[in-house]
Design brief:
11 strands; alpha/beta; two-stranded antiparallel ribbon; 9-stranded mixed beta sheet
């Protein structure tokens, strides 16, 4: 999977109710890009420094954390939509410049490979903790297994040592790594979520990009008449259909409807007109038989591949989709991203998108080589490494103006750049997915039942609200709040 796909792949301070992520085109340097996806030791803030003497080198202007020449860095990367070639390129540069070698593991089995190591107190030094088998960041945080990243974010920036690392990051993109007010994960990739379609198929069928929900349904109905599914979703991972449901809720009810969910409001779902409208809209697709046949039983890649075969007009996903489907996408497919269409009376405009950061990188508090891990993360937020990432992974990072203009992005990713420019300040980003993984899983389970027509919208709202109410009883939840 991609960014925080199927769990997952889903923004600096806990109260980011603002139209989150930017004055975006300027901050991203989007105009300069031509064409072409969680950590603190609980109470202590910094975690226990378990590095041994062999990992402690001499600090310098170029190496402020004192990563030791000749030491070894244990790197684990989620090998999903973005692959892991970018990390290998980083590691090669790290060895060349600092003399630190790396043990590299690229895998999708994050929990399977790493949970035993965390349990034994022998975790890697730095981890891209993403994918369907992600170890939930809120769980790691509560267990005191993650480093507070404040020291990295407050270090001198590689490209401008007169500024802190955090000063060169797109506003709002750190929020997804927050736990109880601390940044404990660096969500590295600038990500948007929404609907995707084939420009080629739409041109052939004479379909226009739908801006309203009625127009969306009309395209789905025309597709059905022609033997094509309307909407595909990654049925075995209901995270994806929740992209559609939650986007509809936020766009219908505005930022207040979104924040009510993140803030565990007693009327977040039951009693929310926006939530009712959003889930009823998705259920209408189910009731009218406008889903791609079989989509409820498919994995993310199975469903996405059928969509690539023109068996559905639309699919929900984040911006890792193009990378994840490179081998399955026809050369002339012309992949396009679009915002979620509007329900009647929506508070946000059509151009509004869910945008922020994905792909959480963490440093375990018991990492054996903390100096090198911190320095490695600091260099991730340099223009050189950000550009290496864009070249290898076809995606933007959270670094402002972080990608060299020479990098050519593929069509789908370029369409997300254009959508971000069009959205401007009209962006939003849920945080409950990072703060409350158990609650998120319960809502996903309800969505799975809804898509299979085993429950109806009223019951979905009831179950989603029950998940909110249960989470609200946890005293620790009061430490997470957005204004």
């Amino acid at each position: 999977m991609g960014s925080t796909s199927a769990e997952n792949s889903t923004n600096g301070n806990a109260g980011v109710g603002r139209r989150d992520v930017i004055k975006r085109s300027a901050a991203l340097g989007l105009a300069a890009v031509p064409a072409t996806g969680f950590l603190s030791a609980c109470a202590s803030g910094g975690g226990d420094d378990s590095s041994d003497d062999s990992t402690k080198g001499t600090a310098s202007k170029e190496n402020p954390f004192g990563a030791a020449k000749g030491s070894k860095l244990d790197v684990v990367i989620f090998k999903g939509g973005y692959g892991d070639d970018y990390a290998k390129a980083w590691e090669a540069d790290f060895q060349k410049k600092l003399g630190v070698t790396s043990t590299h593991t690229g895998t999708q089995e994050i929990t399977g490979k790493l949970q035993p190591r965390f349990n034994a107190g022998n975790p890697p030094d730095i981890v891209d903790d993403s994918g369907a088998q992600q170890i939930k960041v809120d769980v790691l945080y509560k267990n005191g297994q993650l480093l507070d990243l404040a020291e990295v974010l407050d270090a001198p920036a590689v490209d401008d040592p007169g500024k802190k690392v955090r000063d060169l990051i797109i506003p709002g993109t750190l929020d997804a790594g927050l736990q109880e007010g601390k940044i404990v994960a660096l969500n590295y990739i600038y990500t948007v979520w929404g609907l995707w379609y084939s420009g080629k198929l739409f041109k052939e069928k004479g379909w226009e990009e739908p801006k309203t929900w009625d127009d969306f349904l009309a395209v789905c109905q025309d597709a059905k008449k022609q033997g094509i599914g309307g909407l595909a979703h990654q049925g075995k991972y209901p995270y994806y259909i929740n992209v559609a449901i939650m986007d509809l809720i936020a766009k219908k009810g505005g930022l207040d409807a979104m924040k009510a969910i993140d803030n565990l409001d007693p009327k977040a779902f039951v009693g929310s007109d926006a939530a009712q409208a959003g889930v009823e809209a998705i259920y209408e697709v189910v009731e009218k038989g406008l889903l791609m046949p079989g989509t409820n039983g498919l994995t993310h890649t199975e469903s996405q591949t059928r969509w690539n075969q023109y068996k559905a007009a639309f699919i929900t996903c984040g911006s890792w989709l193009e990378n994840e489907q490179l081998k399955q996408t026809p050369a002339d497919f012309d992949m396009k991203f679009m915002p979620m269409p509007l329900l009647p009376g929506s508070a946000l405009p059509f151009q509004a998108i869910r945008a922020g950061s994905g792909e959480p990188f963490i440093i375990p508090s018991k990492a054996k080589n903390l100096p090198a891990a911190k320095e490695f993360m600091r260099r991730m937020l340099s223009k050189e490494w950000s550009t290496l990432f864009a070249k290898e992974a076809n995606s933007l990072t959270i670094l402002k103006d972080g990608v060299d203009p020479s990098v050519k992005l593929r069509p789908g990713t370029q369409s997300t750049v254009e959508a971000s420019k069009a959205a401007g300040d009209d962006t939003f980003r849920y945080l409950y997915t990072e703060w409350y993984s158990e609650m998120g899983a319960a809502i996903e389970a309800a969505s799975n039942e809804l898509m299979a027509k085993r429950i109806q919208p009223k019951e979905w709202l009831k179950r989603a609200q029950a998940a909110v109410d249960k989470q609200a009883k946890d005293p620790a939840s009061k430490k997470n709040h957005r204004d």
